[in-house]
Amino acid sequence: MSLYRDEGVVLRTQKLGEADRIITLLTRANGRVRAVAKGVRRTKSKFGARLEPFTHADLQIYAGRSLDVVQQVETIASHGDAIAGDYGRYTAGTAMLETAERLTAEEKEPAVQQFLLLVGGLRTLAEGSHPPGLVLDSFLLRSLAVGGYAASFDDCARCGRVGPHPFFSVPAGGVVCASCRSAGAVTPAPETLGLLAALLTGDWAVADASDARHRREASGLTSAYLQWHLERGLRSLRLVERT
Amino acid sequence: MYEGVVQDLIDELGRLPGIGPKSAQRIAFHLLAADSTDVRRLAAVLVEVKDKVRFCRTCGNVAEGEQCRICSDTRRDLSKICVVEEPKDVVAIEKTREFRGRYHVLGGAISPIEGIGPDDLRVRELMTRLADGEVTELILATDPNLEGEATATYLARLVKPMGLRVTRLASGLPVGGDLEYADEVTLGRAFEGRRLLDV
Question: Considering only the top CATH level, what class is A84-239?
Fold first, then answer.
């Protein structure tokens, strides 16, 4: 099969040669794919604008020997303008793209749940119906859960004792009871743990009603939890604008 | 593998952007076959460009002195600054002969995924230039791609309290193209920026 068709979200673009780009996509059926888009940096390119980061597109790709080649692109949803027009959304969205890329380590290994999560996350971010920081944290917690690193915000992550528990331990994978508490465990506000649980389950009524102090604490814990599991920090996370 | 200095030359040429091993080999053998005077002239220019050329202390464009040719030209309009990403963008705009103001070269665009934030660009220098009150219009001419748009959004928000007129280069249909081949994003922007035909 030298030609294949798939839908995907553009995660990253890199310049190649005079006018080409290497496009990294998270596709529905083929997982993470890297493909060359020829001539897209020229202003007369017929699909340059359709291969910008955040774009959800229907693509026809030629499977090459080393890198695939993008042949045709039709836009399904272009979130670029809505996201780049708001700096907070842009920095949050970029961190979402980088996370999706990092959590799909193997090329061409299907990651349907990760793909659907990213499509939904970007749509929510572009609509602007919730604060960008909350959308990002919700996406990070859920994509870690899809990747097998679901945090527990109720029962003890170590012994399973029914919660709620006041201590949070990043290495243990969430809240821990008093007997499982390790040296590095922190004691966040109960509202922060409630917010984190709401972000993981998508309870937006609770998340939107949270106050700035608990959002700050929740984003700090989410970042620490993400970096622990990804082992290497995300470049874009330190540049996320939190308001 | 070639012997000694020939292989060194191929290796050095191969480190240049867009030049692969085959191209490096072709250029190396072209230089070997070329007239010795031509090769010496090329070598001299390479050394000279590294010795003489620096970045303009005002705008960040390439310059042979402290200031570039444009910043030291007293006939330029001091009330307008056009912000671009790279020095080559200055050349592209100068070719249009439409703009008589001065420039500010950022040195790139905000790209969090590459770890490039506002502090890695010449944003602080731009704010210093705007502080004297001489500039009345800031033209944001960053690339019409996602990073360029986000950089323009960031700068517009930063400059807004100063009360300047902030404009963005128009996006739309390329001259000489067919409408049917335009993508939705470009065509949408062309509609947004349509102008009145006063005939």
Answer: mainly alpha
The whole domain housing B100 covers: 70-168
Point out the residue among B117, B145, B146 whose CB comes nearest to the CB of A239.
B117
Which residues on B lie below 8 Å from A238 (Cβ)?
117
- Select the residue from A52, A58, A86, A97 to test the B interface by mutation, using most B Cβ atoms within 10 A: A52
The one-letter amino acid at B149 = E
Q: Is residue B108 part of a domain?
A: yes
Query: Which chain B residue shows the shortest CA-CA distance from A100?
Result: B113
What is the tally of helices (H) and strands (E) in chain B? 7, 6
- The helix/strand/coil state of A68 is strand
pLDDT in tens, B38-80: 999 999 999 999 888 899 999 999 998 889 999 999 999 999 9
Q: How far apart are CA A139 and CA A162, in angstroms?
A: 26
What is the topology classification, in CATH, of domain A3-78? OB fold (Dihydrolipoamide Acetyltransferase, E2P) (2.40.50)
A163-186 pLDDT, tens per residue? 788 898 888 888 888 888 888 888
Alpha-carbon distance B86 to nearest alpha carbon in chain A (angstroms):
15
Residue A1 has a pLDDT of 56
- Beta strand A31-37 with A68-78: parallel, antiparallel or unpaired? parallel
| H-state helical runs in B3-118 | 4-14, 21-33, 36-52, 87-96
Cβ burial of B145 (10 Å; 0-12, 13-18, 19+) is buried
User: What CA–CA distance (Å, rounded) separates A185 from A181?
Assistant: 6
Give the max Cα distance, chain A. Answer: 65
Would B120 be classed as within a structural domain?
Answer: yes
Distance, in Å, from the CA atom of B152 to the CA atom of B168, rounded to the nearest integer, reads 8
Distance separating alpha carbons of residues A109 and A116, to the nearest angstrom: 15
Smallest Cα–Cα separation from B102: which of B153, B149, B147, B67?
Answer: B67
Domain count across chain B: 2
Q: What is the CATH number of the domain that holds B10?
A: 1.10.8.420
ipTM confidence = 0.85
